Automatic annotation (TrEMBL):
The entry's keywords: Electron transport, FAD, Flavoprotein, Transport
Coiled-coil regions listed: none
Electron transfer flavoprotein alpha/beta-subunit N-terminal domain boundaries: 5-190
Name this polypeptide is given: Electron transfer flavoprotein alpha subunit
A Pfam family recorded for this sequence: ETF
Organism: Bhargavaea ullalensis
InterPro entries found in the cross-reference section: DHS-like_NAD/FAD-binding_dom (IPR029035), ETF_a/b_N (IPR014730), ETF_a/FixB (IPR001308), ETF_alpha_N (IPR033947), ETF_asu_C (IPR014731), ETF_asu_C_CS (IPR018206), Rossmann-like_a/b/a_fold (IPR014729)
KW Flavoprotein (keyword) present: yes
Amino acid sequence: MSNKVIVLGEVRDGALRNVSFEAIGAAKTVAGGGEIVGVLIGDDVQGVAQEMSAYGADRVVTVEHPHLKHYTSDGFGQAFMAVHEQEQPDVIVFGHTAQGKDLSPKIAAKLQSGLVSDVTEIEGEGEDAIFIRPIYSGKAFEKVKINEGPVFFTIRPNNIASPEKDDSRSGDVSSVSADIQNLRSVVKDVVTKATDGVDMSEAKVIVAGGRGVKGPEGFEPLKDLADLLGGAIGASRGACDADYCDYSLQIGQTGKVVTPDLYIAAGISGAIQHLAGMSNSKVIVAINKDPEANIFKVADYGIVGDLFEVVPMMIEEIKKTKV
Ligand code: FAD
């Protein structure tokens, strides 16, 4: 049997986030040949609708309203429910992003459905799909099969492959009008922090520093390495607590959960709370001068040494391969 799947695309600064395309990839797996409908919510989202089609959405439905310029759970909740009422899907897919984490339980409660959150892998297809998600801070994996009712799941960024983009694909784009009202919160302005570009949650490479960097200036060689690899900078809570960097960089149980292709941990001891945020990275390289450091237990490659010697050497070697 085929399923009608709706996928919520996430737009930031006028562009679709990668997790939206990965969600279309997940949708294809569970659709069993059924229709995939992309949903875009905002004040001006028509411009990116075609991109959802290029990644495999059969149709795109937009909800535009001045009150949807910035995300609020009330506003986006009302908009999504208007689309849901029209489309009556069998399956709903969101990204497991800050927005998706906030909105999905609200929608699940409204629909009185279950919610499988933070899915990192899907086994099987269509009705037989089994959702795999990490539990106990990534120490175990749970397999979930939904036997009846609407299927609603969120996917962790960077884990499920997005389909190939095909610009020749085009799909119908229609709009749903929603009367967005009774908002309990209104975002008047958004003040963004200046960052060095790459979004950590979607980065393929992360170079993270811990208390071993000794000070804010100790992050400089790590930034050079990250730039060279097209990656993002991250940190342990130890480094954030010591005021070496901003808390927005914190990775771990009480920070961000990341799964890049390559995670380089420099001067990080590997406390269990840090591992909770990065141990599912595809390849982990640890640099630590203590051969007994816990981080080496999860590392694919371990370098015992002083990060201030090792990181510049890595930079030099990588530069040679780039010539
Ligand atoms: P340290 O443990 O001090 O380790 C520094 C490491 O650097 C050492 O291994 C040392 O050998 C090495 N080093 C020193 N100098 C050099 C050098 N020159 N070259 C190479 N290596 C060097 N932590 C997180 O990271 N994320 C979280 O989300 C988080 N949440 C927490 C939640 C709770 C409730 C609690 C209680 C704690 C949490 N922590 C979290 C803190 C965690 O327990 C650790 O204290 C923290 O991760 C330690 O940071 P660190 O590894 O940078 O520092």
